[in-house]
Design a protein that fits this description.
Shape: extended
Order of helices and strands: EEHHEEEHEEEHEEHHHHHHHE
Strand content: 15-25%
Structural class: alpha+beta
CATH topology of the largest domain: Trigger factor, domain 2
CATH architecture of the largest domain: Orthogonal Bundle
CATH superfamily of the largest domain: Trigger factor, C-terminal domain
Number of domains: 3
Number of helices: 11
Mean pLDDT: 92
Number of strands: 11
Radius of gyration: 34 Å
C-alpha cells in the first residue's frame, strides 16, 4: 500500500492511497466466498453457486461493497500509520475499481491543529473583592419568608387591588372572533406580579368580585404572537375569588419552623454563610472565565471548520431547548450570532487538551465511576438509565475527557497569580 499525505493547511490533509492489484483481487475473492455461503439461488445448493452466476446477479452490489471495505480499511491504516488526529468524516474521491488492477483513492480530512501552548503557568488574574452585605442577608430572609406566606381570602372588600391574588374566568375576542386559547376557567393571577401581560393585569384592578365585566386589553406591537401583536382584545371577565398574601412574622418561631435554627439570629448567620459559599463559587467561576479569556487571547492558531460547525449546532440546539416560546431568529441568523461563541469555545478546548497533554493531567477510572454513581444517585428513579447511558464506552470516554478539562482548569487556577481588586460597580446579588 502506497500512502501520500499533502498538507493543504494547518487543519486539512489530503490522503492519497494506492492499493496493488493483488490486494484488490483478494477482497473480491473474500466478498464472493462470503456471498456464496449465504446466497440462495434456484437450481443450486447452498455454497455451490458458481462465481460467474453470482457475478451476473450481484456484480454491481459486490463491487460497491469491495470498494467501501478497501477504502475504510486502508484509510484507517493510513491514518494510524501517519499518526493523524482526524476529526471529520472523510470526503472520498475514488478511481474506478476493477479486478486485477491497482486501485487508488484520495480522502480529504480535517485534523486537529498543532497547538503551541505556552505561558499558561502564572497567568495574572484579577479577583474582585466581594462580601455579603446585611442587605443581601435581609433580602434572602425576605425570600424565605415570602416562600412560606399564606394566601387568605379578602373579607373587608370585593374590589380587586394591585397585589391581590385573584381567580378568574375569562374569554376573549379579537375583531369579533374568539381568540385561540382565549377562554379559561379558574385562572390564577397575581395582579401586578408580572406573570401575564401587564396590560391584562392592569385592567383587572377595580373589577368587582362575582360580577361579569368587560375590559379592553391592547397587545404590544412586538408581542411574540404575531396574530395578536398591535391589536386590542375584548375580554369578558368574572372575578371568582380575591386573596391576599399574609407573611409570617419574622421571629424565633419562624427560624425554628422554616430555618432549622434555634433563633432568628442563628438563621441569619446560616443565610450569611450560605451566601458566602455561593459568592465563593461565583468568584471562582469568574476567575475560570477570566483565565480562559487570557489564554485564548494570547494564542493564535487555525480552527477546524468541522469542530466549529459541530459546536454551532450544539449551541443552536441548546438555545432552542431553552427558548420560552416566542418568535425565534432564523437558523442563518442564529449561526451568525453564535459562531463567535463557538469559535472561542473550540479554541479554549483545544488549548486545554494540549495543556493537559503537556502536564500529563489524567483522571483515574475510579474517579470517573464515582462521578457516574453521584449522577445516578442524584437522578433518583432514573438512576438505572444514567448507569445504562454511561455503560456505553463513548459516553464514558466523553465524561472522562470533560473531567480532564475541568481538572486542567483547576491545575491552571492553582498556579495563577491572583490579585485582589476593588469592585468598580456594585456586584450583582447572586440569585438563589
Amino acid at each position: 500500500m502506497k500512502i501520500d499525505v499533502d498538507n493543504l493547511s494547518s487543519t486539512q490533509r489530503k490522503i492519497r492511497v494506492e492499493l496493488p492489484g493483488d490486494a484488490v483481487d483478494k477482497e473480491f475473492v473474500r466478498a464472493y466466498e462470503n456471498l456464496g455461503r449465504h446466497a440462495k439461488i434456484k437450481g443450486f445448493r447452498p455454497g455451490k453457486v458458481p462465481r460467474s452466476v453470482l457475478e451476473g446477479i450481484y456484480g454491481d452490489e459486490v463491487k460497491g461493497q469491495v470498494l467501501s471495505r478497501l477504502v475504510e480499511r486502508s484509510l484507517g491504516e493510513a491514518i494510524k500509520e501517519r499518526g493523524l488526529k482526524v476529526i471529520s468524516e472523510p470526503e472520498v474521491d475514488a478511481d474506478t475499481l476493477e479486478e486485477g488492477r491497482a486501485f487508488a483513492f484520495s480522502a480529504l480530512v480535517e485534523v486537529k491543529p498543532d497547538v503551541d501552548a505556552k505561558d499558561y503557568i502564572g497567568v495574572e488574574l484579577n479577583a474582585v473583592k466581594l462580601s455579603v452585605s446585611d442587605e443581601q442577608v435581609e433580602n434572602a430572609l425576605g425570600r424565605l419568608r415570602d416562600a412560606h406566606a399564606q394566601l387568605v381570602p379578602v373579607e373587608d372588600r370585593d374590589i380587586v387591588e394591585r397585589g391581590d391574588f385573584v381567580t378568574i374566568d375569562f374569554s376573549g375576542t379579537i375583531d369579533g372572533q374568539p381568540m385561540p386559547g382565549g377562554k379559561t376557567e379558574n385562572y390564577s393571577v397575581e395582579v401586578g406580579g408580572g406573570g401575564v401581560l401587564p396590560e391584562f393585569e392592569n385592567a383587572l384592578v377595580g373589577l368587582k368580585k362575582d360580577e361579569e365585566a368587560t375590559m379592553t386589553v391592547p397587545y404590544p406591537q412586538d408581542y411574540f404572537k404575531r396574530e395578536f401583536a398591535g391589536k386590542s382584545a375584548l375580554f369578558s371577565v368574572t372575578v371568582k375569588e380575591i386573596k391576599k398574601k399574609v407573611l409570617p412574622p419574622l421571629d424565633d418561631e419562624f427560624a425554628k419552623d422554616h430555618g432549622a435554627s434555634a433563633s432568628l439570629e442563628e438563621l441569619k448567620n446560616k443565610i450569611r454563610s450560605q451566601l458566602e459559599v455561593e459568592l465563593g463559587e461565583f468568584r471562582k467561576e469568574a476567575l475560570k472565565e477570566q483565565l480562559m479569556e487570557r489564554l485564548v487571547e494570547k494564542h493564535s492558531f487555525d480552527l477546524p471548520e468541522s469542530l466549529i460547525d459541530r459546536q454551532v449546532r450544539y449551541l443552536i440546539e441548546r438555545q432552542q431547548r431553552n427558548a420560552a416560546g416566542g418568535e425565534q431568529p432564523s437558523l442563518d441568523d442564529l449561526r451568525k450570532e453564535l459562531r463567535p461563541h463557538a469559535e472561542r469555545q473550540v479554541k479554549a478546548t483545544l488549548l486545554l487538551e494540549k495543556i493537559a497533554d503537556n502536564e500529563k493531567v489524567d483522571v483515574p477510572d475510579a474517579d470517573v465511576q464515582k462521578r457516574i454513581e453521584d449522577a445516578a444517585r442524584g437522578a433518583g428513579q432514573q438512576a438505572s438509565a444514567v448507569r445504562q447511558y454511561y455503560g456505553r464506552p463513548e459516553a464514558r470516554e466523553s465524561l472522562k475527557s470533560q473531567m480532564i478539562l475541568d481538572r486542567t482548569i483547576e491545575f491552571l487556577l492553582d498556579r495563577a497569580v491572583t490579585k485582589e481588586v476593588e469592585p468598580t460597580v456594585d456586584a450583582p446579588e447572586k440569585k438563589r
